[in-house]
Amino acid sequence: MPLEGKSLGYWYNKGAWVMQQTTIRLEAGEVVGLVGPSGCGKSTLGKVLAGHLRPIEGHVLLDGSPIPTGVRNPVQLVLQHPEQAVNPKWKLRRTLAESGPINNNLLSELAIEDAWLNRYPSELSGGELQRICVARALGSGTRYLIADEMTTMLDAITQAQIWQSVRNWAERNQTSILVISHEQHLVNRLCSRVIEWPCI
Ligand SMILES: Nc1ncnc2c1ncn2[C@@H]1O[C@H](COP(=O)(O)OP(=O)(O)OP(=O)(O)O)[C@@H](O)[C@H]1O
């Protein structure tokens, strides 16, 4: 079930093209790195692939077909700042339930404590909150995880723990990962293939 971006083009507010004629293909189960200079469109590509932005040109295809709408997107995006990705007024059980029934195996893999789910986002640490966001992204039906600087704001130990859990889960569930990161050593360690993103 490959994920393909075909001849993608995107600009913001009818400004200069951030990307044009961009093609990318990720295979099922692959862990691929995406590295390149700052401000050149890596996050934009991640958002287009995950359906957060609609491409101005081109298509995103999953297994040769447009990404299904009206159901949970099999392509999920996790960004750098978890506090911006959750509703501050919801307890985390509700946030997690956005991706379907709570999967205790997944919570256990990510070392998420049940008590955290009864708290509000402001009552967790950044690392704890990011684990919740990762668990939500890896919920039922996810085939591709776009991890955009997903652990950049965390200390090295937490970063390593989260990536170990995510790799384990992804391997067991045939989930592919696109790792967007400035941290070359992280990308080299995690990924079987690395795409060098050019500036246009
Ligand atoms: N919401 C937005 N509105 C207008 N321009 C934007 C918006 N988001 C990003 N841009 C611009 O699009 C270009 C690409 O940004 P993007 O965040 O995709 O790059 P990036 O390669 O991920 O950068 P970094 O490595 O610094 O995170 C930049 O010039 C940025 O200023």
Tags for this entry?
200 residues, alpha/beta, Rossmann fold, 5-stranded parallel beta sheet, 9 strands, 28% helix, binds adenosine-5'-triphosphate, ATP binding, P-loop_NTPase
Helix-and-strand structural type: alpha/beta
Which oligomerization state do the chains in this entry correspond to?
A: single chain
CATH C-level class: Alpha Beta
Which cofactor or ligand species appear? adenosine-5'-triphosphate
CATH level 3 topology: Rossmann fold
What does this structure look like?
This protein is an alpha/beta fold and 200 residues long. It has a single domain, classed as Rossmann fold. It is 28% helix and 25% strand. The protein has helices spanning 42-49, 92-97, 104-109, 126-137, 156-172, 184-190; strands at 3-11, 17-26, 31-35, 57-62, 65-66, 75-78, 144-148, 176-180, 193-196. The longest helix is centred in the C-terminal third of the chain and has 17 residues, at 156-172. The model has no long low-confidence stretch (mean pLDDT 96). One of its GO terms (biological process) is transmembrane transport. Keywords: ATP-binding, Nucleotide-binding, Transport. Pfam families: ABC_tran.
